Amino acid sequence: MTTDHTIPAAQRVESLISEVAEVRAAVLAAEARSAELIARVRDRHRESARNLVHYVALRALDIRGLQDRLAEVGVSSLGRMEAGVLGHLDVVLTALRAQLGQAPDPDPQALTPVAGREILARDTARLLGPEPADRRTRIMVTMPTESAHDGDLVAAMAAAGMDLARINCAHDDEDTWTAMIAAIRAQRGPGRTSPPLIAMDLAGPKLRTGPLLPGPPVLKIRPERDVSGRVVERSLVWLGRVDDQAARGIEGALDAEALPLAGDAGAITEALSRLDEGDEVRLTDARDSHRRLRIEARGSAGILLSADKTIYWMTGTEVHALDAVLTVGPLPGVEQSMRVHLDDTIVLTRSMEPRPAVTDPPFVIGCSLPEVFDDAAIGDEVWIDDGRIGAVVTAGGTDALELRVTSAGPRGAKLKAEKGINLPDTTIGIPALTDADRSHIPFVAAHADMVNLSFVRSAADVAQLIDALAAEQAEDVDITLKIETVAAFEELPRMLLEAMRWQDVGVMIARGDLAVEAGFERMAELQEEILWLCEAAHVPVIWATQVLESLAKSGLPSRAEITDAAMAQRAECVMLNKGPYIEEAIEALSDILSRMGEHTSKKRDMLRQLESWSL
Predict the structure, then answer these.
(1) 86-93 average pLDDT score
(2) What is the Cα–Cα distance from 517 to 414, expressed in whole angstroms?
(3) Residue 1: which pLDDT band, with cuts at 50, 70 and 90?
(4) Is the dihedral of CA 222, 223, 224, 229 positive or negative?
């Protein structure tokens, strides 16, 4: 609505005072309605709980027109009030009254945005550790399995700028986690006097596709060719164990595939001793192709071979060298998949028995969560493998769900084993804490600084985690809520108020699953709204999933990734996933966050009406 400039200025200011006062009254009324919820939080979170309720009430209003009219009379807008709603409203009222010569009448107890941001900074330091010397935003890194026995890798990650180490309890075991933690605790990051903090993820219910029967045990290894088909780099493969010393100076040798050798260990050692660098060996591969290879290096228990033609290795392949014969031992079966297309039928079954990979529909595969078959309804959307396959339920039953593929790309998509399944329309009747999660809580309570709760969708889920930690007397273990479903997003205010019964709390935006659940077109909007809400609650946010993923995995980032990493600076922490180039990714992210931190802090918005939350 535009301003009618025929109205006297004083009358316009009086009208604005009335409008802002109505907004103020609305947020105080919301506080009164939520008094019981606010009373349950810890004393140190009381102001944050009140401000969260104020903000949710404010965002239930559409005040864009009010924003514009305030600007027209030269008064600060309401676009940066998240951290202190009531105090900011009082500042605006004071400025408006001053234009009419009226005395100010602010509430001296009202929380201002400055005071709110101080609370957020305090709680961020408590949850995520002290602020690094050269940036405000912390960096969390997912620990790879090899970090359990590679102290140099952990040291390099800490030196590159890792502030928190994330251990995913869905992988490895307690012995491996213990070794990881020992390596982490021994480190000091740059400009820090303490090692990185340790965050442990509870996996939550696993909703994944079931196994497929493996294909034949064949491994295809080929040389690198240029566009004209000429070999520019011979392929490399180890027979037997990789030997670091023998591989020294040979590019790609340490990354080459290693094939086991079958037979008596003494006979293998004796045969290897008769071979040397430069010798030629021969074999017939799985496709009956005759191949000649060259020995590039010989170690104590293996040889490194190179070839200029593609070879299909299989269990039992015989390699002839002089008068010696080496036999390839058992190879794993080739991972199978089924290519599905638009309108094809997929059948999810309760049985997790490995299924054969077929080429024509129906494509039958297991589903790891039995509750799905009780709760999913006809018409519910289903997304598989991070949204690569979209489908809708067309028939239900106690043991199977029939799906019609609605999205698979123009050339189809591969349906694989152990891939995530999302059902955004389905309310699944299972708590966030599984029996497996509960079995890990004593270890987490004894070793972690923070526990990340996966699949959380309600205040009841949060309460269960609090009760489990309290039973272990683990009040020094902080809680982070992973927001990865639309249900969790919609229940976030109530979950935060429940979590504020605990010492320290954070939120992780698990953008991968959340994008699949909500739709990619809504992802940017949802992550913005989570940032706003958490700033109002003075709760630190961890920005997660696919940050600099190409850089961590391949050593080369995309332009979009760099922009995404720069946007992540508005969160209090950014999470990187593991990869061969994780050190480079940590260093790049640290540099980006440091540079962006000098330019921006949070944001200003127009405050369109939101219907996402209610209390």
Answers:
(1) 94
(2) 20
(3) very low
(4) negative
Task: Extract the tokens encoding 320.
Answer: 């002839």
Taking every pair of Cα atoms in the chain, the longest distance, rounded to a whole number of angstroms, is: 106
pLDDT, tens digit, 9 for 90 and up, residues 491-513: 999 999 999 999 999 999 999 88
Angle between helices 46-59 and 85-99 (to 10 degrees): 60
In 408-559, beta strands by DSSP E = 413-416, 421-422, 450-453, 478-483, 505-510, 541-544
What is the DSSP code string of 225-259? E-TTS-EEE-EEEEEES--HHHHTT-TTTTTSEEE
Distance CA 343, CA 392 (A): 10
Would you say residue 9 has pLDDT above 90? no
d(CA 520, CA 512): 9
How far apart CA 318 and CA 103 sit, in angstroms, is 95
| All residues at 6 or more sequence positions from 519 whose CB lies less than 8 Å from its CB, including other chains | none
Closest CA to 292 of 280, 303, 305: 280
Write down the pLDDT at residue 501: 97
- CA 252 from centre of chain: 31
pLDDT in tens, 169-199: 999 999 999 999 999 999 865 566 789 999 9
Distances (CA, A) of 505 to 113, 125, 496: 20, 11, 8
Position 603 scores a pLDDT of 54
Q: What mean pLDDT, rounded, does the chain reach?
A: 91
Residue 71 corresponds to which amino acid?
A
Please give the pLDDT value at position 538. Answer: 98
Q: Please, what is the Cα angle at 286 between 282 and 287, to 5 degrees? A: 95
Q: Please check whether residue 114 is in contact with residue 84, taking contact to mean a CB–CB distance below 8 angstroms.
A: yes
The model's pTM is 0.82
Instruction: Determine how β-strand 290-298 pairs with β-strand 280-284.
Output: antiparallel
Total H helices, total E strands in the chain: 20, 28
pLDDT tens-digit map of 316-355: 999 998 788 999 999 988 889 999 999 999 999 999 999 9
- The one-character DSSP state at 568 is G
Phi and psi angles of residue 313, each rounded to the nearest 5 degrees, phi first = -80, 145
Distance CA 89, CA 77 (A): 10
CA 124 remoteness from chain centre: 19
Length of the chain: 615
